[in-house]
Amino acid sequence: MQSFISVPFKIDSMHGGLSTVEGLAKFSPAGIVLEFEAKIFGLMQTGLKEVRISKADIMDVILKNGVFNSKIERIFSTKIEIRLNNFTKLNELPYQDGKVSLKVKRNDRERAETALLLLNSDAISENQLPLTSVNELFVDETKKLTK
Question: Which run of H or E residues covers position 9?
Fold first, then answer.
């Protein structure tokens, strides 16, 4: 049984519109793992980067559907906004205005909703977490992706 849900994402207009970021967010009850790569001018790739965020570092995660949060906006624009308690961890991520905004395609919207439910679930409570870091929880899945 898979203990996480993957959601593909994109971040537009980083570095003043010079680069975009594409990646995969893995949500579990223990936290989030973001794997991403920035592309400068759509040509030069910066290399794959992985950032692991434990549930303790997360202030909140919100699924947003545009300015007015209407049904029509849901069709065109869905974002997962992540705010963290730890500024050091935030500096490892592509962020703007103190939050990481992951743009999700329309086809992946339901997957994003399910991922947030899994993140907020108590399937693994803080007391039941193994004495390992979040990165060790995803070792097998990450190895499969790098092959």
Answer: strand 5-14
- Name residue 147's beta-bridge partners: none
Q: State pLDDT tens for residues 75-132.
A: 667 899 999 998 889 899 888 888 999 999 988 989 999 999 999 887 554 444 344 4
The angle at the Cα of 54, spanning 127 to 126, to the nearest 5 degrees, equals 10
Structure tokens at 110: 């339901």
Residue type, 62: I
Residues 6+ away with beta carbon under 8 Å from 75: 106
Contacts of 45 (CB under 8 A, 6+ apart): 37, 38, 39
3-class SS of residue 70: coil
Q: Which residues contact 34 (CB under 8 A, 6 or more apart)?
A: 23, 24, 25, 26, 50, 51, 52, 53, 93, 100
pTM, full prediction: 0.73
* Strand pairing class (44-45; 49-54): unpaired
